[in-house]
Amino acid sequence: MKLKYTIAVICSFYFTIAAFAQSKLVTISGQLKDQNDASLLAYVNVILKTEKENTFVVGTVTNEEGRFTLTKVPTGNYNIEFSYLGYKTASNSVFVGSLSEFLDLKIILLQPDLMALEEVVITSKQAEISNKMDKKTFSLNDNPSQQGGSVLQAMQNLPSITTTDGKIQLRGNDKVTVLIDGKQTALTGFGNATGLDNIPASAIERIEIINNPSAKYDANGNAGVINIIYKKNKKDGFNGKLGLTTGLGSLWERKTNLPTIRPQYSFTPKVNPSLSLNYRKNKVNVFFQGDYLYTETLNKNEFLNRFFDDGTIINSQLKRNRDTHFTTIKSGIDYAIDDKNSLTISGLFGSEKIIDNGDQPFFNADYSQRLRLWQFLEDELKTTVMATVNYQHKFNAPGRTLNAGLNYTFHREDEKYFYDNFLPTSTGTDSFKLLSDEQVYDLNVDYIEPLKHGRIETGLKLRNRTIPTNMQFIPGAISVLDVNAGGWANYMELIPAVYGNYIFEDKKWEAEIGLRLEYVKIQYDVNPDHVVYSRSGYNYTQPFPNMRLAYKINESEKISIFYNRRVDRPNEVDIRIFPKYDDAEIIKVGNPSLRPQFTNSIEIGYKNSWTKGSIYTVLYHRFANGTITRIATSVPPSTLIYATFQNADKSYNTGLEAVLSQEISKLYSLNINANVYRNQIDAFTVTSLYPSPSVYSATLQETVSGNLKINNSFHFAKNVDAQLTAVYLAPDIIPQGKIESRFSIDLGIKKGIQNGKGELFLNATDLFNTMVIKKRIDGINFFYNSRDYNETQVIRLGYSYKF
């Protein structure tokens, strides 16, 4: 009944979902020639007029090469006129659409006595659930209820996105590619979303959600792409922004510790100073963005009950008090060599220092006896350095560009774990050290050719990636570590790819057809003395097509059909052979035999806009082969559980999403996002090899789930804005089990001061402390229930000043 009620509530809001829109202006260009001898026609008058009113919009004359450029043309229907002494005036209808910012009419031939030119059809960009209906763009400055937190926290209130255990899901699917400024980096992970909870939102200008990536994007990311855009000011002269945010979390204890362990963190402080600087003069633009984030967090507070078939019951708690120091610096220079050529050189440095102090007590069924106490200290330092060089050449025809870029990333992961294992009759101390140095080279070349009715995009990419890793186990006198599972491993990845994309638009139809061809070679070399795993790898050459066909019902309504094929390759961490002991009795280990997951997606979308609002709805279906999921198994008589990634055959995700925004009055606007979907994982059987072969068979799993997000925005007098956000996540299936419903409310208020140069804000996330993660996992010979009361409620106060 709860589920039926939830679905009814979500559906009742279905037609009130949030969309955000913006307009971009278009540049029209072309070249005039004599039709008889193809001579260039200089100083031809070119005038653009509205189609209905026949009023002047913009005009120019051709240069010595016969070229003309009309800039800042908004979307609409026009007539374009060409007039020149000795030639007959030509007048033609022109449509400026929504897909290209540059339109090239190519060569236009004029004759003194012949008929006018053919009709010209032109396109441009307009909206922010974009006119292509595949992308949503959000400014973090418009999200005061999450201002001052991390990027991951800021994403929680955005349409289509849900977050659980630090993972991001788009429409119920966690196979998401996260980019920074259009590039994959080690800050966000090559294939996962690691690190987002430690990137300050203050460094970010906007976030783009791309549900249907075209062929110009890498093929990985079945669910879609999230692109995080760093701040970069381009105003003339010297300017910048200074900010400071402070906060407190864990304001009260939600669930009391089990006996005999150290206290939970409470009143945890948060500090985030930030500085943005920019200097622009003549041909040079220099930019700098620096952020420091210090937080204390009750990162984990999970209570778990394990039930085994032989009647054994073990109750435990995993508590993790975390201190984090995260520094990011992004700086660079844009240099305009001349009117046609420009160069950008930039660098990014990130340093993430994490100290975890953890306690994990284990008790018998009635909590009368402590069976074990596992205490640990994790000292982890992650260092990221990224250097980028981008070159752009603009041809004479506006919008015709050649871009080339080289991106280098270095990422070091330096982990040290120290364990104390207290048993009823003995005490042992263990430790391990892990060092991983990742290096990635990316070379990109992209070319754009504007056309009369759209554009062509084409390019190539080459990636070379290596990750040597070394794990050193240091056992104590009474050790529980598997020292034979240590040693070294080396991950090597080579991916050359080419793509082509064609975009077409006229007054009624739009089409986008693309194809990306990727060759992938993965090799994973393993220490030959490893107790279980050996060298592995794979390679493939695969096409990844994409297609979009849209029909414009009228100026405000459009319907689109999407199709694409994408892949999720296992990340290096997914296949890493070393067991991880951050939970003493649920041990995570990688699987070198893991293979890619391929997914086909189909969507049908509808968009309608009106003066003070818009609605966007989409029906989607995804079906995947080789679904990657983590499977928990045990090997009796041991009660240890091993969580290993496996390929679980086929899975399906079908849903209905709607996004609507409506301005009710100048004081209040309402934005709602609702998503109802059905997840299914077919029956499968897999064999886990570590620590010894264990076969697991799962029956078919399916459920109907969804989520609802309501954003209420208030605009008061004297530059005061407020936001109240409610998020509800319905129960859902997860590998081997189910996750229960979750609910939270966020509140934020901000005020502009100092003549608009300054801003104050105050907000609270999870205002009523209701966000608790409850799961059930079913394995062979056991099942367990867990409830995580980690820190979700944080109150923040912040100030920023522009100069």
CATH class of the largest domain: Mainly Beta
Principal-axes shape call: globular
Number of discrete domains: 2
Strand content: over 45%
Please provide the count of β strands.
Answer: 45
Instruction: Please tell me the CATH architecture of the largest domain by its name.
Output: Beta Barrel
CATH superfamily of the largest domain: TonB-dependent receptor, beta-barrel domain
Average pLDDT figure: 87
Structural class: mainly beta
Rg (C-alpha, Å): 29 Å
Helicity, as a percent range:
under 10%
Number of helices: 3
**Uncertain spans:** 1-23, 114-128
The CATH topology of the largest domain comes to Maltoporin, Chain A
Largest sheet: 22 strands, antiparallel, barrel
How far the N terminus sits from the C terminus, by CA atoms, comes to 56 Å
Description:
This protein is 2% helix and 63% strand. The strands form 7 sheets. It has a 22-stranded antiparallel barrel. The longest helix has 11 residues, at 2-12. It starts with a helix and ends with a strand. The model is unreliable at 1-23 and 114-128 (pLDDT under 50).
